[in-house]
Automatic annotation (TrEMBL):
Keywords: DNA-binding, Transcription, Transcription regulation. The keyword Transcription regulation applies. Residues 48-67 bind DNA. This is AcrR family transcriptional regulator. Residues 25-85 form the HTH tetR-type domain. Pfam families: TetR_N. The lineage of its organism: Bacteria, Bacillati, Actinomycetota, Actinomycetes, Micrococcales.
Length: 217
């Protein structure tokens, strides 16, 4: 794959959020964190929407204004990571995705602060709950599919007008699956509960290197 140097600036830009939208998103993320904690502590099958709403400090009516079911409540937590992944790609100065993605994997998965480590710890609990619950797995796979779809137009622009659309789809899939498998494999293990040693990033780097070998040609 030979990316072009040409890149238009507007394709990856998104309009600024209104105050109401920022408050809505903050509320949804707080509910997601409350749901993740309850799912990890008690198991999803033992957690109700009422319990999530209470833990998040909102009414049940407000909960259902944001989410159609208790399983959907974790979506904002999972989506926030995908949003960061897409934003970093859109803002990156590099033109070659095969050298760009390894750097971005470290940016996404290497914790720099205590808050980053806590976010990884919470994510680990969510992923362990997902492994045991089909409805949560459906949410996880939907978030990953949406993230992959959002990568494609950015990669098309990054690689230039002559790029093969199939190459773009393959690269988007490889990049998304590297993150997904890195997190899932780490979450299933027993070591490094907060990711401080870089285990999720290291696994994701291995996955990306193995899956991307064919694209290097």
């Amino acid at each position: 794959m030979h990316p072009s140097d040409a890149r238009t600036p507007a394709a990856s830009e998104t309009p600024a959020q209104t105050l109401a939208e920022r408050r809505r998103d903050a509320t949804r993320l707080e509910v997601a964190r409350a749901a993740a904690g309850l799912f990890a502590e008690h198991g999803p099958q033992h957690v109700t929407a009422e319990a999530i709403a209470q833990a998040a400090g909102i009414s049940l009516r407000t909960f259902y204004r944001h989410f159609s079911a208790k399983e959907d409540a974790i979506t904002p937590l999972l989506t926030s990571g995908a949003d960061n992944w897409v934003r970093l790609l859109a803002d990156a100065p590099e033109r070659d995705p095969l050298t760009l993605f390894p750097r971005l994997i470290d940016e996404v998965l290497l914790p720099q602060t205590a808050a980053d480590r806590e976010e990884l710890r919470v994510t680990r609990g969510v992923l362990r709950s997902i492994a045991e619950t089909p409805l949560l797995r459906a949410v996880w796979h939907r978030v990953n599919a949406d993230s992959e779809a959002r990568l494609r137009p950015i990669l098309s622009e990054l690689c230039g007008p002559g790029v093969d659309p199939l190459d773009v789809r393959i690269l988007a899939t490889v990049a998304s699956d590297a993150i997904r498998l890195g997190l899932e494999h780490w979450a299933a293990g027993d070591a490094d509960p907060d990711g401080a040693e870089g285990v999720p990033a290291a696994i994701a780097q291995q996955v990306f290197a193995r899956l991307s070998r064919g694209l290097a040609a």
